[in-house]
Amino acid sequence: MHDLLDDLSGWLAAGEPVALATVVWAEGPSPRPVGAHMAVTPSGGMVGSVSGGCVEGAVFQEAGTVLESGAPKLLRYGVVDEMGWEVGLACGGTIEVYVERLAPVHERLLAALAADETVALVTPLRGGAHLLAWLDGRLEGDASLAALLGWDVDSRWPGPLAERRGAGFVQVYAPPPTLTIVGAVHLAQPLTHLAQAAGFRVRVLDARRAFATRERFPTADELVVAWPQEGLTLAHLRPQDALAVITHDPKFDVPALAAALRSPVGYVGLLGSRTTQAKRRGALVEQGFGEADLARIRGPIGLDLGGRRPEEIAVAILAQIVAARYGRADDGWRRA
After folding, report:
1. Top CATH class, 178-325
2. What is the three-class DSSP state of 95?
3. Would 128 disulfide with which of 74, 124, 227, 235, CB 3.0-4.6 Å?
4. 291-297: which pairs have CB atoms within 8 A and are 24 or more residues apart?
5. Which residues are CB-neighbours of 131 under 8 A, at least 6 positions away?
6. Could you tell me if residue 75 is left (phi over 0), alpha (psi between -120 and 50 degrees) or otherwise beta?
């Protein structure tokens, strides 16, 4: 939904009706995960996807009927013969897509997302009122749906999730993960673009004002002119976040790594050869860090894809971050 935020907000501001399609169930291989969204307008606007192209045309047509009637639809698509004319998934899976007209509750949801709030939306799949629930226990909408949440609304929620529960669908929206790049060097430029395309918010941190400029990083979500010990905070080093230390300078590397190892950040990567890695680890040992701490550092940073151009190394770094995020085995680290 974060990816659709700008388009949805623009359409709503223009007074245009919007149909929202959501993958609410999947079985077997499916191109898009449960919780994936697609939005459609009467004028032909379309953003997002629910299948990667297999059934978008059919969902687009169904969305038009939903916009006309106002009645939601629960659609089901399964595997079909690739050479046939029937609409379906060629990957062998089955999905269910719920299509509904955007309601005031969705506008409230968009406002919460724009404010970086963590919020759950409960959607009854037979039509009717929705429920919004916040971490602090606030509820808006049909409170009878709170039982579908599966946890106390005033407790810590287990991160983003999307799951069908009985006749309802529960989706928890959390702020996007953050990638903090320590070092506003050349490599940081393509890494910023790639990470943003993958859904990360990007902070670029460097104490050198001549490096950390808007001219060099026009799309960065945040530019921080500070030393790592000042600019790295727990707010941006959460379990879902990542840190890439690419300055190749001990004055930046060591304090950045120390801050990361004192935090629950999910990924810590360090640029540099094996010799550089050994030196940085030695400095951290002198500060009292143990082997378990040092084992969290991915270094040399990135998967070993063989590339040497900045853009290629950026791809390798982002690939490793994504692999770590989904628990893939780390047997392909870069060797140089």
Report:
1. alpha beta
2. strand
3. 124
4. 293/261, 294/261, 296/260, 296/261, 296/268, 297/257, 297/261, 297/268, 297/269, 297/270
5. 120, 121, 122, 139, 140, 141, 142, 143, 145, 146
6. beta
Distant-in-sequence, close-in-space partners of 291: CB < 8 Å, separation ≥ 6: none
pTM: 0.76
How far is residue 231's CA from residue 227's CA, in Å, rounded to a whole number?
6
How far apart, in whole angstroms, are the C-alpha atoms of residue 93 and residue 84? Answer: 16
For residue 205, pLDDT over 60 is answered with yes
Residue 286, H or E segment: helix 274-286
Q: Tell me: the pLDDT tens digits for 319-331?
A: 999 999 888 755 4
Q: Which of 304, 309, 311 is nearest to 336 (CA)?
A: 304
Place of tokens 């959390």: 174
pLDDT in tens, 171-192: 998 888 999 999 999 999 999 9
CA angle 40, 43, 49 (to 5 degrees): 20
Residue 21: other Cβ atoms inside 10 A: 28
CA 64 to chain centre: 29
Parallel, antiparallel, or unpaired for β 168-173 and 267-270? unpaired
C-alpha torsion angle, residues 31, 35, 40, 45 (rounded to 10): -60
Pairing of strands 139-141, 131-134: antiparallel
